[in-house]
Specification:
The chain is 22% helix and 30% strand. It is α+β, with helices and mostly antiparallel strands.
């Protein structure tokens, strides 16, 4: 028996990967079949208000899935997208109107009035704390990204007229000019530059105190992945780099990017930090990175959380092993 090839891929072990859905793309343009799926007893939906998941909370913990009847009881919706099907259920994603939730106090938690049985929890927090099973987190990442796109693309970018959802949520169409619009994913390169027994890490001012990570930046039009990697390392740290090796990718639903992880050979040592992008950048030895990943660095320096592909790149380089999320 052939082994599952994904079992050998680093991408299979990073945060927000492991989506089990058959996306049923062949059914998206058949409105009748999509409607029939929604009428099935096993139809379920993930629910969002703006970019925040809505969850049931009970004695057993948090639950992500609602029946479609339960969704209707929550209030008016803006969009409902067919995500796909697992072995157990057909899964949709529903975006409620923003006024469905509010805050009792200015700095209080977001909540749906009168529904103490529900909780609104940021997806990053859900993933970092492993509050839901990994496949559910992956499906929520898919849902969040596509619902965010709908919420931000209600008007045609060609003529400005209102657009309407089509293809079970995987397209928007403009009735005025006929333009079709499709959900976008923005590619980001994230790279660990190495030179001998050292690697280059940087930190932004918004990072948690003491945390260092791999450098990263958006891939620009007309660039290859390798060209983007070389440009970003030069721009942010002033280091020329040579050979680029792809390692893994990661869906990152904040709001809808694909992190393309690479290892890259540095050709020089002298760092020139672009302080508009980074607070600091420096070389770390393999031993230091091992200590950072283990939370044992003498100066209290640390690595990104396990949900981040940057940590996977650091671990592969430092220990020559992957870390299952």
């Amino acid at each position: 028996m052939m082994s599952d090839p994904s079992s050998q891929e680093l991408s299979a072990f990073v945060g927000f990967s492991g989506n089990p859905l058959d996306r049923l793309s062949e059914l998206r343009d058949d409105a009748g079949k999509v409607a029939a799926l929604a009428r099935q007893d096993d139809a379920r939906s993930l629910v969002f208000v703006a970019d925040t998941p809505v969850l049931k909370q009970g004695e057993a913990g948090l639950e992500a899935f609602f029946t479609l009847a339960e969704v209707e009881a929550l209030g008016p919706r803006l969009e409902q997208v067919l995500l796909g099907r697992t072995d157990e259920a057909t899964v949709f994603a529903t975006l409620l109107r923003p006024e469905t939730a509010g805050r009792a106090e200015a700095n209080g938690p977001l909540a749906i009035p009168g529904r103490e049985d529900l909780a609104l929890v940021d997806l990053r927090s859900l993933a970092a704390k492993a509050q839901l099973e990994r496949p559910v987190i992956a499906m929520m990442a898919q849902a969040k990204s596509v619902l965010f796109w709908h919420d931000r693309h209600r008007f045609c970018s060609r003529c400005g007229a209102p657009s309407a959802m089509a293809s079970a949520g995987w397209k928007r169409e403009c009735a005025a000019c006929g333009t079709q619009h499709f959900p976008r994913t923005d590619p980001v390169v994230i790279m660990l530059a190495t030179r001998g027994d050292r690697c280059l890490l940087g930190r932004q001012a918004r990072f948690a105190p003491g945390m260092y990570s791999a450098l990263a930046g958006f891939l620009e039009p007309g660039e290859t992945i390798e060209e983007a990697v070389r440009r970003e390392v030069m721009e942010e740290a002033g280091i020329r780099v040579g050979a680029v090796t792809y390692m893994a990718s990661q869906p990152w639903p904040f709001p809808a990017t694909l992190m393309i992880g690479c290892l890259v050979e540095a050709l020089g040592d002298e760092i020139t930090v672009d302080h508009t992008e980074l607070e600091d950048a420096r070389w770390f030895t393999r031993a230091e990175v091992q200590e950072m990943l283990g939370g044992e660095h003498a100066n209290g320096l640390g690595a990104p959380q396990p949900i981040a592909i940057a940590r996977s790149l650091m671990r592969v380089w430092a220990f020559a092993q992957i870390e299952k999320f």
